């Protein structure tokens, strides 16, 4: 249900209850098979600035109070007006004043590869909320996309920025791109890095997730 409506300059937003918990989320995603392995890569898709996938993911949570499956996220993402899916297996993508022609399968592959990371970050967020370590926990898409901050936690009335990553080439590559883009902001308030492989991850269905040990590590680093 809607618990608040906020107006800010020329924007309006509704604030709703979020009923998802760590236990509910894990129960849901155990039933979501991951079919993203060995997908075709389109280098134009890989190297282009595309509409953010995370925004579609969190918009779905807002609208449905649950997480989308990979296939549902693909459908939600490609239904946006940025995309013109053609019958020849290609897609015209118009974004930020540019139009590119890419493989449909290449787009699907990128969404599949991005899905586990977004899911893992949301699961980490819920764990932080339920841990009791922090006064508040916040995710902002704009902080994530524009400032390279995955989540914020509040402790002793002070906010701390957190970066979540896997110790893989792909993860480190995109983290370095974010770091270079937002280097001046990180100097103002450094990111606390939490890597998945610092402890054994939790396997839930086809997905590797952070554990309570990672949440405790974040708490210890703040202290």
Any chance you could write out the topology, listing elements then pairs?
Blueprint: E1 2-8, E2 11-16, H1 22-29, H2 43-47, H3 53-64, H4 70-78, E3 83-85, E4 90-95, E5 98-103, H5 104-131, E6 136-138, H6 141-147, E7 151-155, E8 158-165, H7 169-181, H8 183-188, E9 192-195, E10 202-204, E11 207-209, H9 212-222
Parallel strand pairs: 8-9
Antiparallel strand pairs: 1-2, 3-4, 4-5, 6-7, 7-8, 10-11
Helix pairs in contact: 4-5
If you had to describe this structure to a student in words, what would you say it looks like?
It is a single chain. The protein is α+β, with helices and mostly antiparallel strands and 223 residues long. It has one domain (20-222). The chain is 44% helix and 24% strand. The protein contains 9 helices and 11 strands. It has helices spanning 22-29, 43-47, 53-64, 70-78, 104-131, 141-147, 169-181, 183-188, 212-222, and strands at residues 2-8, 11-16, 83-85, 90-95, 98-103, 136-138, 151-155, 158-165, 192-195, 202-204, 207-209. A 4-stranded mixed β-sheet has the order 6-7-8-9, sandwiched between helices. α4 crosses α5. It is globular and about 55 Å long. Mean pLDDT is 91; it is low at 169-173.
Side by side, the strands of the main sheet go 6-7-8-9
The number of E-state strands comes to 11
Question: Distance N terminus to C terminus?
Answer: 37 Å
The residue ranges in which pLDDT falls below 50 over 5 or more consecutive positions are: 169-173
């Amino acid at each position: 249900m809607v618990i608040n409506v906020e107006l800010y300059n020329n924007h309006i937003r509704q604030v709703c209850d979020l009923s998802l918990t760590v236990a509910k989320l894990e129960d849901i995603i155990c039933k979501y098979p991951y079919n993203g392995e060995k997908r075709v890569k389109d280098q134009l898709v890989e190297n282009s600035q595309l509409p953010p996938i995370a925004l579609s993911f969190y918009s779905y949570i807002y609208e449905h109070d649950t997480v989308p499956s990979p296939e549902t996220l693909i459908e939600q993402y490609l239904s946006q007006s940025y995309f013109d899916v053609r019958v020849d297996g290609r897609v015209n993508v118009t974004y930020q004043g540019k139009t590119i022609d890419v493989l449909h399968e290449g787009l699907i592959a990128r969404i599949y590869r991005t899905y586990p990371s977004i899911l893992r970050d949301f699961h980490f967020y819920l764990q932080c909320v339920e841990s009791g370590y922090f006064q508040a926990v916040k995710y902002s898409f704009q902080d994530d996309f524009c400032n390279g901050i995955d989540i914020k936690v509040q402790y002793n009335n002070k906010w701390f920025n957190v970066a979540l990553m896997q110790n893989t080439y792909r993860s480190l590559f995109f983290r370095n791109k974010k770091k270079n883009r937002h280097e001046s902001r990180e100097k103002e308030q450094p990111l606390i890095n939490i890597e998945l492989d610092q402890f054994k991850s939790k396997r839930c269905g086809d997905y590797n997730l952070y554990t309570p040990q990672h949440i405790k590590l974040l708490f210890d680093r703040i202290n």
